[in-house]
Design a protein that fits this description.
109 residues, two-stranded antiparallel sheet, rod-shaped
Length: 109
């Protein structure tokens, strides 16, 4: 991980400041290197940095429900439960099969 240090001209941060380097410095040195202060950035500085670097947000990803279900069904415990439910139904223990099926539904949902 790194923080963006300010440029030599004092403008926007351009050079990465490693977390290890920042840990060795005093808070005032880190704030100075980042081009900030204990009070934070001014609105114009924050807008300028956001325009140059982008928003301070984590990227999200979209997961397909079918892919998630496929990964879950690959779990050895779930495979064991499915086999146990099938065997219970085949051997005439419908109640056990239903209980195992309900457990599977709860786990999968």
């Amino acid at each position: 991980m790194s923080l963006l240090a300010k440029s030599e001209a004092g403008g926007l941060p351009v050079q990465p400041l490693s977390i290890a380097d920042a840990a060795r410095q005093t808070p005032d040195q880190v704030l100075d290197e980042l081009g900030s202060s204990a009070l934070g950035l001014s609105s114009s500085d924050a807008q300028e940095r956001q325009a140059a670097v982008g928003p301070n947000a984590l990227r999200t990803h979209k997961a397909s429900p079918w892919l998630v279900l496929g990964r879950q069904l690959g779990s050895p415990i779930l495979v064991l439960l499915i086999v146990a439910a099938g065997l219970s139904l085949f051997l005439g223990a419908a109640t056990n099969s239903i209980v195992i099926g309900v457990i599977l539904l709860v786990v999968l949902c």
